[in-house]
Design a protein that fits this description.
By secondary structure, the chain is mainly α. The protein is about 55% helix and about 5% strand.
């Protein structure tokens, strides 16, 4: 089993050029399946074995979303094995994915976003960096992985655009506001010239590139400083970005391009958010609501 997993992971790295985060998830999911199979031969795996594996995951109280992700990993794995001739039949074609509940994304209103962005102490180097991080996340609506992967050479300070590397290793151009550019400029001017990582925009205290987890800590720290009750994540600033654009008249197709969504259906979740807000306004304001 491990030999087939290694072949598949190499295929993802070399031919598909998927992100490190995706590689990690696939590896974890396939290792769990390998442990479940034990010494069983890969050609002996049928749809019943797959159903037993999914039942075991449910027995461990995994969420539907986690089970769906693991099933997606197995689907890609068996599709690869079948195409390469390593198995005689693809057993996963008989398995359907669990139906997921659609959760409305968590977002902040404009006043709370402003309060969050203004919370870092810009008299300190770390405060300048944190302000620049929060400004950039909200200004561009980019993912945290895109933020930490951002290089100085990818920022066009004159045109007001940045080039980010998104899901599937696809590059896209994203507008960036003057306030975010000004914050990045001030932060960059105050950075230590001895920093180990010269290309990266956002650095840790040791001069290396920031990680996704570090950005989460930055957001948590300033949410706490704001004494907010909201349980939000860095991704909530992306949700806020999309919601505020739609609220102010942006069309769905443009928001899809800005977010880097492959399918318009992914972006449509924000229309549910704006509709919920409209309903709340209606219920409060209409005399016969």
């Amino acid at each position: 089993m491990q030999r087939y997993i290694d072949k598949f992971i190499n295929y993802l790295k070399i031919e598909k050029d998927v992100s490190r985060h995706t590689i990690t998830n696939y590896t974890i999911d396939l290792k769990a399946f390998s442990l479940f199979l034990g010494e069983a031969d890969i050609n002996s795996v049928d749809h019943l074995a797959l159903r037993k594996f999914l039942a075991e995951l449910r027995g461990r109280n995994y969420s539907k979303r986690t089970i769906a992700r693991k099933l997606a990993s197995l689907r890609s794995f068996f599709k690869f094995l079948y195409r390469e001739g390593h198995i005689k039949a693809n057993p996963i074609t008989a398995i359907s994915s669990p139906k997921l509940d659609k959760k409305l994304p968590k977002f902040l209103d404009i006043a709370k976003v402003t309060k969050l962005i203004m919370s870092p102490d810009v008299k300190t180097p770390s405060g300048l960096r944190d302000r620049a991080i929060l400004e950039t996340l909200y200004s561009c609506g980019i993912r945290v992985s895109e933020l930490v992967g951002l290089d100085m050479e990818k920022i066009d300070f004159i045109s007001g655009v940045i080039k980010v590397l998104g899901k599937g290793r696809k590059e896209r151009m994203v507008p960036i506001g003057d306030m975010a550019l000004d914050s990045i400029r001030k932060y960059a001017e105050g950075r230590s010239p001895s920093a180990k990582e010269k290309k990266a925009v956002f650095l840790n205290s040791r001069g290396g590139r920031l990680t996704d987890r570090s950005v989460r800590r930055v957001v948590d720290k300033h949410i706490h400083a704001c004494s907010s009750e909201e349980k939000i994540s860095p991704h909530s600033l992306r949700h806020s970005f999309a919601t505020h654009l739609l609220d102010r008249g942006a069309d769905l197709r443009s928001v899809q391009e800005l977010l880097g969504h492959m399918n318009l259906s992914t972006t449509q979740i924000y229309t549910h958010v704006t509709m919920e807000r409209l309903k709340n306004v209606y219920d409060k304001a209409h005399p016969r609501a």
